[in-house]
Amino acid sequence: HNSFYNPDCLFCRIAAGEIPADIVYRDEHVLAFRDINPAAPEHLLIIPLKHIASLNELQSEDKEIAGHLLLAAGEVARRAGLYDSGYRMVFNTGADALQSVFHIHGHLIGGCRMGWPPF
Ligand code: 5GP
Ligand code: ZN
């Protein structure tokens, strides 16, 4: 494990291959895999390999990782068949947003017509 790994974190353990996941994309900074409890016909999670608890803990030194995560979204969407039909990426942060896993993840959701606003 590298210094970015938190042994108490589910998504760090998925990134380390200790817990299986349906992985659709991986590069030197990020990993994307299917959500175990999908909220839409296609529901993927894009995470940084580095353990960062939420957007609130993101530091300016993480700029490259954060940018990389957004740059990967189009390719992840393409692999999930969502590139042309459209998709949404959401970062639930904190209690009101119902964040339950404290390792930054973008929910990439699509495969159906969505509503807005989301409540
Ligand atoms: P949050 O609630 O923090 O915004 O999102 C956490 C997401 O992780 C949820 O959509 C939940 O279904 C998903 N999740 C929780 N545990 C696992 C797991 O073990 N494997 C996968 N693939 N997804 C998980
Ligand atoms: Zn983690």
What is the global morphology?
Answer: globular
Query: Could you please say which CATH topology applies here?
Result: HIT family, subunit A
- Give the helix tally: 2
CATH superfamily: HIT-like
Protein name: Histidine triad (HIT) protein
Pfam families: HIT (PF01230)
GO molecular function: catalytic activity
What do you see in this structure?
With 119 residues, the protein is of the alpha+beta class. It has one domain: HIT-like (HIT family, subunit A, 2-Layer Sandwich). It has 2 helices and 5 strands, in the order αβββαββ. A 5-stranded antiparallel sheet has the order 1-2-3-5-4, covered by helices on one side. Strand 1 and strand 2 form a beta hairpin. The radius of gyration is 14 Å and the shape is globular. The model has no long low-confidence stretch (mean pLDDT 97). The structure holds guanosine-5'-monophosphate (5GP) and zinc ion. Guanosine-5'-monophosphate binds next to strand 2.
List keywords for this structure.
119 residues, alpha+beta, HIT family, subunit A, 5-stranded antiparallel β-sheet, 2 helices, 5 strands, binds guanosine-5'-monophosphate, binds zinc ion, catalytic activity
Write the layout of secondary structure elements.
Blueprint: H1 10-15, E1 23-26, E2 30-34, E3 42-48, H2 63-79, E4 87-90, E5 106-110
Antiparallel strand pairs: 1-2, 2-3, 3-5, 4-5
The chain binds guanosine-5'-monophosphate and zinc ion.
Residues 10, 21, 33-37, 45, 92, 98-101 line the site of guanosine-5'-monophosphate.
Domain HIT: 10-119
Pfam families: HIT
InterPro entries: Histidine_triad_HIT, HIT-like, HIT-like_sf
